[in-house]
Amino acid sequence: MKKLLILPGICTALGGTLITLSSFIKACQDFGLSPQVRVLVWSGSLMETYLQDVGQGEVLQAIAADSQPQFLQRALQWVYQQPQQDPLLLDNCVDRRLLPILWKASFRLRLSGRSVFHFFHDLALSYNPWGYLARKVTFASLAPTALCNSHFTAEYIQRLTGQRPAVLYQPVDPQQFNDLPPPASPPLNLQPILRSGVRLILCPARIRNIYEPVINDKNQQALISILVHLRAKGQTYHGVLIGQDLSANQSYSQALLDAAAQAGVADCFSILPPALAIEEYYKYADVVVALSPREPFGRTVVEAIACGIPVIGSQTGGIGEILSQFAPDTWQVDPNDPGAAAAAIVEVAENPDTSTILAKGKEWVKTHCSAAGYARTLLEITGLCS
Asked: pTM above the 0.90 mark?
């Protein structure tokens, strides 16, 4: 029986790549196709724990390793022992530490005749020209069939690989993300904020270093400037960043808190740890803000819309690509113009057409971000089913 072998490029972060993988596995379970899927995971990693906890352990193949590069190397050794007919899907293996391993593996994989696919969840760019060249050489040698999460990402990956990738918008679980009434009791760490009577701005994203240039910058400091503009307008909003901070001693979070204090909005700005039940936070938000200028897809946008929450997002990147499908121009702003974002937040709250726009957005998400549709397309592309 042919199996799809999935090898992730990162096993230690709770983010869109992991959620997408879990949604795919769940759809395969619903189809009765889970025996035809094998996901290699770093033993003891966050990814293995998460997938085990949501009941998807049956598809996992744990690989013991001391680091992500060693995991990739040992996982490939396991792949070599599998039947040549089993296709290999590399899931966002673009970290510079992995490139030498992939380059060495490319010759054996091509000689074996095994079908190799690569799903690019980001732009695979580098500030270092040599780093980008290394990616270009690696993927030229590997020559995988490229897949992407948006047309925006595909434009960059086409330059990298020389082929136009297939685009699969990322899936959203309607059982988790929907516009049903919220739980009677809000999440504990939101309760003090909500009791104060303010409106809630939610920004779910992994916490980044605001002083370090990042190609896929989450632009989280923009929320602080937005709060300054809203306060000047007499609007009472509280901004909440919720996400994982991987820095030592939570230094990234502290830098943002210090910036909020210097801007005079420390009393209406909070940072909360990541939550598996993120939908409960969406349901208590008045608006979600996503101002990353070059976000490849923007999972928080489709999750929020599915929950019936309006989104003010960047007019660029994958976020702009999604919002342009159903939202008016006023929901899309220059990511470097916090004043325009603040004005858009006020307009969305006061516009009687917001509910109509949200209904259109929810229908778009249901049609284009179905887990079943995503899984079916991926299985067809990789040759598991027709």
From this structure: yes
